[in-house]
Amino acid sequence: MKNNLLFLLASAAGIFFFLLSNMMQILSFNDEMSTSGISKIAEPATLRATEFGPVVGSSDKNQTHVWFGIPYAKPPIGPLRWRSPQPVKAWSTEFEALSRQPECLHQRTLIGFKSGRKKTIIGAEDCLYLDIWAPRSAAENAAQTEEQLPVVVWLNGADNKIGASSHISGHKFSGAQQLVFVSVNYRLGRLGFFSHRAIRNTSKNPEDSSGNYSLLDVIQALQWVQKNIANFGGDSKNITIMGTADGGRHVMALVASPLAEGLFQKAIVQGGSIQSTSINEAENFYDDEHIPGRVSSSNEMILSLILDLHIASDRREAKDDINAMSDESIRAFLERQSAESIINIDIDNPNSSEALLSEIPQLIRDGNVLPETDFYTLFNDPISYNNVPMIIGSNLHDAKPSMLFEPEYVSWMLNRRPFVKDTEFFDLTSEMRSNLKFILAVHEPAKLLSRSRMDVQAPPNIFAYRFDWSDIQPNLQGNWNKLIGAGNSLELDFLFYHFDGQEGVPDWYSKVNTADRKALSQSMMDYWGNFIHVGAPHRGRSATLAQWSPWKEQATNTLVLDNSVRGNIRMEKTGYDDETFKAELISMLGTLKTREKCLLAITSINNLSKISTPVSDHPVWNLDSSLCDHLK
Known about the structure:
This protein is α/β, with parallel strands linked by helices and 632 residues long. 33% of the residues lie in helices and 14% in strands.
């Protein structure tokens, strides 16, 4: 159940992006949109020096310059797969940073995962590049201005399987808020997080053996920014790390990582979490007698590869083979596999639903990149983590987009039009799961972080929000207001003003609410911009907005972002916590059928038990555990 839950609660921006661009052809968070208006002609004014060599870029919208595809590490291919990122080789001639570089290798789609078909793979292993937007300035002035601009390092989110820097265009945010915007590609999936004894025992240093290669990529990018961003007009002592969904989880992990100390001064987490993984969970077989691992652990992946290659005839034989192999033999076997086969591996577990395909063990508590202590314990002590000002938030209907891909709730006609099987149960479940996501992504981390600061009498510096805007226009393919609402990652359209060309046809965003959307977008950029500049959102850079007060344990201040009809932008005290959630859950269980109870057990009980006393023993469940085995 635990493995399934991690998928079901995932805040997957990549899922959302795919839903919009590939299935409904409504949005395009890819190169087509992100590069619109870019000349792709090298401009002398964009010539900048870096420690590895000179780079030249081009002009973009909103009076910005842009540099696409600057390498910040060597390609992690061949012997560099599952190793910490290595410094890039220097160059002497001008590097033309004029076009996007490949996304990191990932699956293109989640549609059709029940069919057993292999997924489409896009991207490349050679993907460790970053993009930079900065307000226009002459080359000779960029590093000599009286006041260097604050820097944002953006980490896109996609459940660590989908996504790239090209999904976001930073020209509007950079130009409007006068900041340098850096978007980073980092390794995804099992190429980004992979812990196994064969890797640990044959590595030459703790970083190579950590399993946290994706996180190490980001740390390498931050080190690059520290050394080079001044020549792009940025202040290396005023850096904000910012991410959504899995990118938000990376941000939270960087707050926890001792290797990231001093590399940033502020953090923004949009729909992240404080979940992490032990080495045993990441490596062991799911049916291990002593300490069971995740269904998608590294041993389970190797077992699936062995079965796919017909090296063994069944699970028992494959397990015996793996246990008998030396570390060197396993590593050699893994290095012979193509990156595509590793990304695309389907793990067969009769006790698991299709959801297991998604959740790869990540943020591994290896004792070096991340402490062995779980984040819940770590964040109780302000000297145990990188204590910086933070914005933490999630969306009102965070769970809805991912539920569209779950056959328990939704079926698809020709993979294009969704039909909700039981509207009442879909609404109930999405509400409960979204509420639980708020607890896990906002309430718990805000409570822990603010309490630890209060214990040392430090001023509060945690700012919470909830994005409620949900006025999506229905169309012939569905009532997306009901199906998605204020779903995960929808706030990105507002934060980066991704409305151009999306009004009228095919009516995702209606012209009727243009004024409301633009006003909310401007306010969000204003708040975020002020936080990035000075470390607190206050009333925005314009000083005209409602005061955004910090979170306190006894005053759970949360900024609600909504339209003018439902109250616009306002502060609320969201006292919704785990005890409130448990009470609501127990009150409704008596009316549910056995299957519905099982589904709620998967999506609620197991994760809630991580932060409070579990309610699984409550008599209202009245469930024989075997009844839920097919959904574990």
